[in-house]
Amino acid sequence: MEASTEPNSEPHYLEVLYRDLALALGNAVWAFARMEWRTYEYMRRLSRDHVDELVGEVSFSARCSILRRLVERKAPPTAVKERALKAIREVESLANRRNIIVHNPWSIWIDLDAEEFMTEIQKYSNRDSKVDLNEIKRFTAAAEAAETELKAALNAL
Known about the structure:
There is one protein chain. The chain has 157 residues and is of the alpha+beta class. The protein has one domain. Helix content is 64%, strand content 13%. It has a 3-stranded antiparallel beta sheet. α1 (13-46) crosses α5 (95-103), α3 (60-73) packs antiparallel against α4 and α4 runs antiparallel to α6. The radius of gyration is 20 Å and the shape is elongated. The protein starts with 12 loop residues before the first helix and ends with a helix.
């Protein structure tokens, strides 16, 4: 979307939404990508036969399952193992929300009753499942925290 050509004019709200939305979506995708990368990194570290290379094309859920099995094979103190398993469950729990954000249409429409523009992502097959800009920012923060905890928990093994 092009910026306004009028001198000293405020940007149109769609221009601001575009910038905010593009940045928020990019941050959300990047935060989840870091979690995905960690699954490969720790599959390699926790296995002797480069499991990461063998399962490079499998789903995130399948990689988490494999990672969980690798952790369960280890013999650290119970609290260390439980922390790692909890961290894996946490990153896994964010996958469905990430799929809604990445794979569903973003909509802009007017709510005539509220007399305001509405902006959110709707899951195409379940229109009641919605994500707005603030939810994307909350997802990003949760993904960043989960990735940090996954790294710390798996490093402790």
